[in-house]
Write a structure and sequence with these properties.
The complex is a heterodimer of chains A (1399) and B (100). Chain A has 1399 residues and is an all-alpha fold. In chain A, 67% of the residues lie in helices and 1% in strands. The longest helix of chain A has 20 residues. Chains A and B meet through helix 22, helix 24, helix 26, helix 45 and helix 62 of A and helix 1 of B.
Chain lengths: 1399, 100
């Protein structure tokens, strides 16, 4: 074998230089692009052509890490590895990327571990089907070298051969390096021989390896000689070679040669040696010559660019156990620090990761602090320890922190507790509690609630366990946590016990106290002379049992209340809160605190919850009253406001027990109470004359007058009966005066009844009315006072209020009142409204109105500066153009250009010229070179034209944008057609069609459909083939994803989510008519009435003449009725009837019944008129309406009127089968259910009269059946004895059918069987009876009935038998007969047919 | 009635809105310290510092609610806010953050 050391190698063909230096390769990802050709070993372009997005992602991740830090965290690498594995077979470039990262890029990982990692990845990816080529083997070799991994190069080659992978030049070079690392020149020479045989070029990398190889074989002379050998071979020594040589000297501890070499290189080569020198430092450290390091270090200029490398050197040193040297380097980086940022975190963290002893860490921290490199190194180390779950270290660090006087906080213990909790290591938890106590940290309530108690079944167990393990420390935190924990788990009795226990402990301590007390404070013991002085008592009280303010556990307590039904516990706890000063010590005291608590309790309950718990809440209020607990009036009215929508008027009355004074009276009179003015007046006078209380009637009268807008009279009535006026009446009166511009009277009333300092507030609407009228009459100060009052009294502000504010501001702006606008605007904005741009625009409008353009422009810019909104821009532009004010026009254009860019400014100008009819100028603007279509802006203007019906402007827009780059022509024409459609202008539409052809635009199907529609609707022939997709058919033409998502979500019953999307899209997009219907319906199904109405409003603003379809509007009506919004429901009904849509029967029925319940005759009558011709179509019986009206009379205590109304109808109904009012079952049922006995009697007499005098038997049948229903068997029997013969079978069947549709009604049919068996069809009766018991799930009765039918030989229909068989099977009972073989449906059909044939 | 309900919702929402969003809160600081710090600008009504129940560390951001808009203005009058040596980032809380 040829010996390289002896002679030069002239026959080796030197092709090029490879692997210029090792250090640079560490950062291959960053520097590769800049040094193409010289650095890369594998052709990167090849990787890039094959890369997928995923590769991009991984590369970016790694690249980012390397770019920023020059290294990769092991966790990141593993994460990327797992991600890549998860997606299945990793690509070639991915495997390469991962393998290459397992070397020096992981300075924080020990060398063997890095190799292990590489092997693990190699194997795993191979398993997943990765195919390895030469590049992968080479990458693995590189990793071996970087990790100083010992391996057999020949075996490696054999493995490659086995895998049928050809080694290349790079493979050989690296194998040579491997031999040289071991000082094996022979091995290296063998490989060189291979290379020679294959005519491979020998590069600098090979020579560098040989330098090392010779040195490590003990022959430094030969090593030094290599440099001249390579020169002779025509290869210039580069940084790699010098590094190799310097490392040789470093390993020998030859400081002089190092120095000489460095100086030589600096002189002759002019390299930047810094990175090389850092490697030399590492070599010196490893070789055990730290004394020479300082000398080298001084030569390095630590500049910013060097920082990642320097950091990595520090990390590498720490990894190899040279932390002191590392720290020394770290400190030299100090001049690089900028500002007062902490330095050395990476170092400290790595030290923690490497389990450095705490003393060492402490020393580093102290030095860093002294060097002013780090402001808080100890807390940082604590964090690292906590993050890596090193609890022992964390505790040690906390001890040091305490010694150094650093604060220790409860939440420092949380990460430790979390880990122990996960490990279910109770011992660990106790230990932490003890240590924290020893450290003097009083753990807070959160610690106990979230991290301690969770480990135990309940707080009692927790307490016992803590005690047993000597870590029970009585603190406020513990007590509150106990209360919270038990409350949140609904164990209110425990809450009470705990609270009481604390009290008794407290008093025990006091009874044990003599005159001297030892008090522990701040770790010092004081001897206190007691003498039971009040101050000391307080002190003591606070010290050992400091106040636990209720707000610490309010929410948990509310949860507890809600999950407990024990009212007396509720009350006891509330009493404790109220009377034990510890819980409510913060001013304003217990009254306030308990009021606040009650308010939140109610606030946290939904309407249905309130309804479900109404009775309990009532008892609760009563008990509180008994306990003499009072709450502030303001809280009371807040609670009433909360209760208001829950439909619990009785409960609201009971809530009145709570506030201080009894000064409050009913504020909300039911709508139903309204009757006409004259009747009320009479009633009032009568009452007055009889010396009866008149407040209620008076209130009704005032309301009625307000309704009639009769201000004069209303004020007169008020004056006359002043002492009996109540708050509600005044409020209505104020509103009335506002409406009638009577600002004086309105303010007088307001000041008198609702003064500013009174806790009673008007509702929002009335305040708004006041502000509006005051502003209108120039009483600015008063208006502002009202607004401030609204704020002080926390009057709720809704979107509607905001709209009102806008109206008020805009009105002032239209009047040109600058000061008014400004002052009102300022006050309104300060109310803390949600940000609404619209409120700012009057600030500009006012100047436009005054034609002060300079001021308008200034206002525009101010709005932008203050609120970030550009408002009224279009109007300003138009006005300036109209005025020809070129200067200001330029100014505003410049402003928009600078803020939004030239394009936006050009569009604004374009639209303004169009708007003002200056088409020539508009053309010039739109033809600005480079301007392209901005869909959003074009849509905005087009829609504006459509909504304001500006055909000419729109036509010009379409025409002028013809040559605009990227303009969607079809869309522009679609806009034109939309306007044609709303104008019904088919001629224009036809002209548009011609234009479309002229311009050679291919219209979309949607456009053609719209055109066809216009023509068809106007009786014209459609001159083309109408596409099948009509624009109404939304499913295919849904232009946007959101709309589709909304529909899908609605279908899945996720109306809330759909509504959220709707909200997001609001203002940005409009939806199809059908989508609105669907969304509204879905919302209503989920009982989201407000949201539904919101959507409806949006739809109405977007779609001209929008009406809900029948199903959605009916649902809306039902929801409104359910919430008692009867007026709204009436309006909806009227709306849909007006647009020719029919409501469903359930909707109409619900509304009728609700109105009847309220005794609202006026609206019932109106409803009756509305439904006059369509009752049959809807399927509402005439009887129902008549019954309802009679019921309403009843509700108004006018029984005579009810009978007078109903009786003639029943008589005529008997003669006139059309429009017949026949039955009175609804009326009877209602009065019976509500226990209105006199009414029931009266209608009973009427029914009997009709039967005996007129031969009309249906009412008496209804009466009989109502007796049966109400289980008044005797009454029923006596009735049947008189009218038995006249009872109609058909009515009985209907009655039984209805009974069998709900559970729990079997009794009714049993009663019928008992009373009138001779009137019943046994087969039918038993069928329904059976069904009733089946519904009840009453197996025994079902079987008994079946036995009875057998005994009585009643032939049951197969449908009945089928149903019975299915029922018995379901409950696991044997079927005592053969189950009918056909389906249910079959037998239902059969039965129907039979019925049809017999009738 | 509909209005009353809507108003109630609105009021509920506004109560739950926060004024200020604070980011880059140092891990050493708890809501107690935050409250103490921000109290110099006005009365702090609520301070919400969410903790990650899985790690026991807080999430490095929090929300603050003051009693009055003036308090909020006071806070923003100060250029930078340094808590335990670390500069925190403040933002006017948007409507986007609603609880519940």
């Amino acid at each position: 074998m040829y010996k390289l050391t002896e002679t030069p190698v002239p026959y080796l063909i030197i092709h090029g230089v490879e692997g210029r230096n090792i250090m640079y390769q560490i950062r291959f990802l960053t520097v590769a692009p800049q040094q193409e050709g010289s650095v890369k070993e594998e052709p990167i372009s090849e990787i890039q052509t094959r890369r997928t997005w995923q590769f991009d992602w991984a590369l970016n991740k790694l690249d980012n890490s390397v770019r920023k830090t020059g290294r990769i965290r092991k966790t990141l690498l593993l994460k990327i590895f797992h991600e890549i594995c998860k997606t299945g077979c990793p690509g070639s470039n991915q495997t390469l990327l991962l393998l290459r990262s397992c070397g020096t890029l992981l300075p924080e990982v020990l060398l063997p571990e890095r190799t292990e990692l590489a092997h693990m990845m190699w194997d795993k990816m191979k398993e997943l089907g990765a195919v390895y080529d030469t590049s992968h083997y080479n990458a693995l070799l590189k990793v071996y070298l970087q990790n100083e991994h010992k391996f057999s190069p020949t075996e490696f080659l054999a493995r490659m051969e086995e895998a049928n992978v050809q080694p290349n030049r790079v493979t050989y070079q690296r194998l040579i390096a491997a031999y040289c690392n071991e000082g094996d020149i022979e091995g290296a020479s063998e490989i060189l021989g291979f290379m020679k045989n294959k005519d491979l070029p020998i590069t600098e990398a090979v020579f560098s390896s040989l330098v090392k190889g010779h040195a490590r074989s003990g022959d430094v002379k030969s090593a030094e000689n290599i440099l001249s050998v390579m020169r002779m071979a025509g290869v210039e020594p580069g940084p790699d070679t010098y590094l190799s040589l310097l490392n040789v000297y470093a390993e020998k501890g030859d400081a002089d040669s190092i120095k000489k070499t460095i100086e030589e290189v600096e002189k002759t080569e002019g390299y930047v040696m810094d990175r090389i020198l850092m490697q030399v430092i590492f070599s010196l450290a490893k070789a055990g010559y730290p004394q020479y390091i300082e000398d080298i270090k001084e030569r390095i200029r630590f500049e910013k660019e060097l920082l990642p490398d320097a950091m990595n050197l520090c990390l590498t040193l720490v990894t190899h156990g040279f932390e002191d040297i590392g720290f020394h380097i770290l400190k030299s980086l100090n001049p690089l620090s900028r500002g007062n940022v902490d330095h050395g975190n990476f170092f400290l963290q790595h030290c923690v990761n490497r389990d450095m002893p705490v003393n060492k860490l402490k020393q580093f921290c102290t030095e860093l602090k002294e060097a002013e490199m780090h402001s808080a190194p100890l807390p940082f180390i604590l964090r690292c320890a906590l993050e890596t779950n090193k609890s022992a270290l964390a505790i040690d660090v906390m001890k040091i922190m305490k010694e150094e006087g650093l604060p220790l906080r409860p939440h420092y213990s949380w990460p430790l507790l979390v880990v122990f909790q996960k490990e279910k290591n109770l011992g660990g938890i106790f230990e932490v509690l003890k240590v924290m106590h020893e450290l003097g940290v009083e753990l807070d309530v959160e610690t106990y609630t979230n991290y301690v108690f969770k480990n135990f079944a309940d707080s009692e167990t927790a307490r016992a366990q803590l005690k047993k393990n000597d870590c029970l420390f009585e603190t406020v935190g513990l007590s509150v946590a106990e209360i919270r924990y038990e409350a949140a788990h609904g164990r209110l009795n425990n809450v009470l016990d705990i609270s009481l226990a604390e009290r008794s402990q407290c008093s025990q301590v006091f009874t044990g106290v003599n005159s001297i007390m030892i008090v522990k404070a701040n770790d010092n013991y004081f001897i206190q002379d007691l003498n039971a002085s009040r101050t000391f008592r307080d002190f003591f009280f606070f010290f050992f049992f400091p106040p636990i303010d209720i707000h610490h556990f309010r929410n948990s307590l509310i949860l507890g209340f809600k999950s407990s039904d024990d009212v007396s516990l509720w009350s006891k706890i509330t009493e404790l809160l109220y009377k034990d000063e510890r819980y409510c010590l913060t001013p304003p005291g217990p009254t306030e605190a308990v009021g606040y608590f009650l308010y939140h309790l109610i606030d946290s309950m939904s309407d249905s919850e309130v309804q479900a718990k109404e009775e309990r809440l009532r008892q609760y209020f009563h008990q509180l009253k008994k306990m003499n607990i009072v709450i502030p009036t303001s809280h009371y009215s807040g609670i009433c406001r909360l209760l208001d929508p829950s439909q619990v008027p009785e409960l609201i009355k009971d809530a009145r027990l709570l506030p201080h004074k009894k000064s409050l009276t009913t504020d909300n009179i039911p709508e139903s109470a309204k009757s006409d003015v004259s009747a009320l007046e009479k009633k009032l006078e009568k009452r007055k004359a009889e010396n009866q209380p008149i407040t209620d009637v008076l209130k009704q009268l005032v309301h009625a007058l307000c309704e009639e807008e009769n201000m004069q009279k209303a004020l007169e009535v008020k004056a006359k009966y002043e002492p009996d006026m109540v708050v509600g009446g005044y409020a209505a009166l104020i509103n009335l005066c506002c409406r009638h511009d009577n600002v004086e009277e309105a303010m007088n009333l307001k000041e008198k009844v609702f003064p500013k300092n009174s806790p009673v507030a008007l509702d929002t609407g009335k305040y708004i009315a006041l502000v509006e009228v005051l502003a209108k009459h120039g009483r600015l100060e008063d208006a502002i006072n009202i607004l401030t009052e609204m704020k002080e009294k926390d009057v709720p502000i809704s979107d509607r209020t905001v709209a009102s504010f806008f109206r008020i501001l805009n009105a002032a702006a239209m009047r040109g009142e600058v000061e008014t606008v400004h002052r009102l605007h300022e006050t309104i904005v300060n109310l803390g409204l949600p940000e609404t741009a619209v409120l700012h625009s009057p600030l500009i409008t006012v100047h436009l109105e005054k034609d002060d353009m300079t001021a308008a422009l200034e206002a525009l810019m101010n709005c932008y500066k203050k609120y970030g909104k550009i408002l009224q821009l279009h109007n300003i532009y138009c006005r300036l153009i109209e005025k020809g004010d070129a200067d200001l026009l330029q100014k505003v254009s410049d402003f928009i250009s600078s803020e939004y860019g030239d394009m936006m400014a050009l569009y604004d100008l374009f639209f303004a010229f169009l708007q003002t009819g200056k088409y020539k100028e508009a053309r010039k603007v739109i033809e600005t070179p480079g301007l392209r279509a901005h869909t959003g802006r074009l849509h905005w203007f087009a829609k504006r034209c459509i909504s304001s019906n500006q055909m000419e402007t729109l036509e010009h827009l379409v025409e002028l944008t013809q040559n605009l780059f990227e303009c969607d022509r079809d869309e522009m024409y679609y806009f034109l057609l939309q306007l044609c459609e709303s104008n019904g202008d088919w001629r224009k539409a036809e002209a548009v069609w011609t234009k479309i052809q002229e311009e050679n635009v291919v219209p979309r199907e949607k456009t053609l459909a719209l055109l066809a529609d216009i023509l068809e609707k106007n009786g014209q022939v459609v001159p083309f083939d109408v596409p099948k997709v009509r624009h109404e058919d939304s499913s295919l033409t849904d232009s946007n994803v959101e709309e589709r998502r909304i529909k899908i979500l609605c279908r899945k019953n996720n109306a809330k989510e759909a509504y959220n999307i709707f909200l997001e899209m609001q203002g940005k997009k409009e939806f199809h008519h059908r989508s609105y219907d669907i969304l509204i319906k879905a919302l209503l199904m989920q009982n989201c009435l407000e949201e539904a109405i919101e959507v409806k409003h949006a739809a109405e603003t977007h779609i001209k003449g929008f009406t809900l379809n029948s199903a959605a509007s009916s649902l809306l009506i039902i929801s409104q009725v359910r919430r008692d919004y009867l007026k709204d429901a009436m309006a909806v009904l009227k709306g849909i009837l007006d647009s020719g849509v029919l409501p469903t029967r359930p909707a109409v029925t619900a509304l009728i019944q609700a109105l009847a319940e309220k005794g609202d005759l006026k609206n019932l009558q109106a409803l009756k008129n509305m439904l006059e011709d369509i009752t049959k179509l809807i399927g509402v019986s005439a009887s129902l309406i008549a019954n309802a009206i009679a019921l309403a009379h009843t509700k108004n205590n006018d029984l005579d009127a009810a009978v007078e109304y109903l009786e003639p109808l029943l008589i005529s109904g008997a003669q006139n089968p059309d429009q017949a009012v026949k039955n009175i079952s609804y009326l009877l049922r209602k009065v019976s259910e509500e226990g209105l006995e006199p009414a029931f009697e009266k209608f009973g007499v009427m029914a009997e009269r009709l039967a005996s005098q007129f031969g009309i038997y249906r009412p008496v049948t209804d009466l009989f059946l109502q007796y049966v229903s109400a289980d008044r068997v005797d009454d029923a029997r006596s009735l049947i004895q008189r009218y038995g013969a006249s009872i109609e079978k058909r009515d009985l069947v209907t009655f039984m059918a209805r009974s069998a549709s709900k559970p729990g009604q079997a009794k009714k049919i049993e009663t019928l069987l008992e009373l009138i068996p001779e009137h019943l069809d046994m087969e039918i009766t038993y069928r329904y009876l059976m069904k009733c018991y089946e519904l009840d799930g009453d197996v025994a009765s079902v079987k008994a009935v079946y036995e009875k039918t057998k005994a009585k030989n009643i032939q049951l229909h197969e449908l009945t038998l089928k149903s019975l068989a299915v029922f018995l099977k379901k409950v696991g009972e044997p079927v005592p007969f053969t189950e009918p073989p056909e389906t249910f449906k079959f037998y239902v059909e059969q039965l129907r047919k039979r019925r049809f044939e017999t009738s | 009635m509909a209005a009353a309900r809507a108003a109630r919702e609105a009021a509920r929402r506004s109560r739950k809105l926060f004024d200020i969003f604070v980011a880059e809160v140092p891990w050493t600081v708890s809501s107690k310290e935050l409250k103490e710090y921000f109290s110099q600008f006005g009365s702090v009504q609520r301070c919400q510092l969410p903790f990650d129940k899985d790690t026991g560390f807080h999430k490095r951001y929090c929300w603050i609610k003051f009693s009055t808009p003036e308090d909020v203005q006071n806070v923003f009058q100060k250029d930078s806010h340094i808590l335990e040596g670390a500069k925190v980032a403040l933002k006017q809380a948007s409507q986007a953050h609603k609880l519940g």
